[in-house]
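User: Please run a holo structure prediction.
Assistant: Happy to. Please share the sequence and the ligand.
User: Here you go; the ligand is magnesium ion.
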Amino acid sequence: MPAAGLGLRLGGGLPKALRELGDVPMLVHALRSLLAAPGVGAAVVAAPPDGVADVRGLLARELGADAPVTVVAGGATRQESVSLALAALDGDCPVVLVHDAARPFVPVGVVEAVVAAVESGAPAVVPALPVVDTVKEVAAEDGAERVVRTVDRASLRAVQTPQGFRRDVLAAAHAAAAPGGDTTDDAGMVERMGVAVTVVPGSEEAFKVTRPFDLLLAEALLAKRRA
Ligand code: CTP
Ligand code: MG
């Protein structure tokens, strides 16, 4: 679980994964959502590098000292954070999920669908939703933007996490990627190796908290779930 980002688009000073939703840091919600899936046995969190001890303490308090969660220092980019977490995985796990801490409310059904698809032979799996807005390609022109073309939305998908992989496939993709790279989509790295990526249905509840508006949505969803 990459959780080391600064959350610059959200603002507010605190690393995004540590921002609270209903008095609990987003990271805790995300871990609970993931660990609620029977197919998930353990998690490795890539925490903000200067906050590893604090995050260990937080998770011991919130999830219990014996929760199957390891915390390592994340990196300067998401790609690096995922690589560092992958390196800390223990020996026996042929299937690996990569899940953003910034998607705190992914439903168990989505997690299970991703795990099931990898277990039934897909080397890489992404949950995705159809794109609802009309999408246009634009180009800069005289300080403004001009439409180049309208993309056919029917074949477009907005991709979420958790993305699931055969562990050897994800490890190979990270090993092949440029070390200083900033790829924010693990499946994209696997695609570049020529590996097929399978799509399963995502969920609106798996949305990523990116901008301040998303916090409103997250708080509303949490209130509804707790009601
Ligand atoms: N992430 C990470 N390490 C980084 C950057 C991002 O582990 N160096 C994680 C974030 O913590 C988040 C996930 O990757 O859980 C998705 O990234 P994003 O939504 O872009 O989060 P931030 O990078 O924190 O936000 P921003 O890009 O607005 O700064
Ligand atoms: Mg980011």
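The chain is about 35% helix and 20% strand.
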